């Protein structure tokens, strides 16, 4: 046994007091020198022990209710506690096409629901999900099964991130032919070009893309729908179209100096830092020369990713500048703690008001103002209010903007009868994923704004169901167009 307690022999009522089994992670000094995955997770024995803490709560279990995809977590944990890791992985895979990804990057909404969170600590469901999925992957048990008989229907999927992967898998499993269009050079979307290696190795995504290829899915990369090919063209060629293009257009703050050399947008920065050169587009081959001091503006997961990438690129001082307090900070708290552990300083209640450059247009400093919290805004979080006269100068060599994302407005602008709202979000019926253009469906971040991988998966399953109804000639509820809001 890995500890004095045999976790697997403890009665259900006794499990409530069992201590959590820590997962393994690489030492700080070692891991900040490379871009490899930081979390090593569990081995077989530790995984059995941690899964054995699950009390198998009566239905409806709060963990499953908390998972947007409705993963049957107690069943998966039961299988894992018995050493049946492949069976456990197949339970996760029944409701999610990306269990090995979610296990690594999900902020574990299920864990927030786990009743043990009120006692010794919630079960580490995510780490167990990643572990059992990796075991199943190695055993070749995650292959996608497709019917021998094809339907003759052709589906176009636009975008190959979590939403596109979900619909591609759901549709190919139903016997349709599926073609996925991706604007980046490699399939995977945000999973390759947005999430850094130290959280999610590219190989993990690559295995999933290969599964889809093996099942018969075709990928067409370096192709931007709305520019290189239009939705109207796709509808001539395919029986239905799914839009899973995510939310990849970065917001800026509109303050002076944002065009200076040394001020980066987060995706551009992360791609250059994290993606191998041969997978990057031609205009992103150069790795940033970041200097000694980096400031990342923003407070979400992307800001944390940029800060951690900066440390790995060799910065000596990395600061996250956030306009509210930690209590209002979005994103994954454990990732934030890892980021601080790696040497990032977080300056709360501050915001830049100007970036300052030298005579060559190169960033040298930023003017920062202190903030205090006012009344709650529309998001329910207290609004940051500037403290007049509190400005100070912070010397920096590089600034990375991670202050929000929007969907690409191109599809809405270039496609008749495809209604959008709120700065380019595609209008759909939330329950069915049908857009205002017949035969075109959408789900994920381009519908609800930037959110979690598992949230995109859940809504994309619904859109796939609606596409199937549409292909079978069943009624699909269409949303009522709303007036488009201007920027
Ligand atoms: Fe197990 Fe926690 Fe879910 Fe209960 S809430 S079934 S203890 S994972």
Give me some keywords for this one.
20 strands, alpha/beta, 487 residues, globular, binds iron/sulfur cluster, FAD/NAD(P)-binding domain, 3 domains, 5-stranded parallel beta sheet
SSE map:
Layout: E1 24-25, H1 28-31, E2 39-41, H2 44-51, H3 62-66, H4 73-81, H5 85-95, H6 99-105, H7 109-113, H8 125-138, E3 154-158, H9 162-173, E4 177-181, H10 190-193, H11 202-215, E5 218-220, H12 231-237, E6 240-243, E7 249-250, E8 263-265, H13 266-274, E9 293-297, H14 301-312, E10 317-321, H15 333-341, E11 345-347, E12 350-357, E13 363-376, E14 382-386, E15 392-395, E16 398-401, E17 405-406, H16 410-414, E18 420-421, E19 425-426, E20 440-442, H17 445-448, H18 453-471
Parallel strand pairs: 3-4, 3-6, 4-5, 6-20, 8-16, 9-10, 9-16, 10-11
Antiparallel strand pairs: 1-2, 7-17, 12-13, 13-14, 13-15, 18-19
Bound molecules: iron/sulfur cluster.
The site of iron/sulfur cluster has 14 residues, from helix 3 and helix 4.
Describe, in plain words, how this protein is organized in 3D.
- This protein starts with 23 loop residues before the first strand and ends in a 16-residue tail after the last helix.
- The longest helix has 19 residues, at 453-471.
- Helix 4 (73-81) runs antiparallel to helix 5 (85-95) and helix 13 crosses helix 14 (301-312).
- The chain is of the alpha/beta class.
- The chain has helices spanning 28-31, 44-51, 62-66, 73-81, 85-95, 99-105, 109-113, 125-138, 162-173, 190-193, 202-215, 231-237, 266-274, 301-312, 333-341, 410-414, 445-448, 453-471, and strands at 24-25, 39-41, 154-158, 177-181, 218-220, 240-243, 249-250, 263-265, 293-297, 317-321, 345-347, 350-357, 363-376, 382-386, 392-395, 398-401, 405-406, 420-421, 425-426, 440-442.
- It has a five-stranded parallel sheet, sandwiched between helices.
- It is built from 18 helices and 20 strands.
- It folds into three domains: 3-138, Alpha-helical ferredoxin (Fumarate Reductase Iron-sulfur Protein, Chain B, domain 2); 154-248 and 406-471, FAD/NAD(P)-binding domain (3-Layer(bba) Sandwich); 252-403, 3-Layer(bba) Sandwich (FAD/NAD(P)-binding domain), CATH 3.50.50.60.
- Bound molecules: iron/sulfur cluster (SF4).
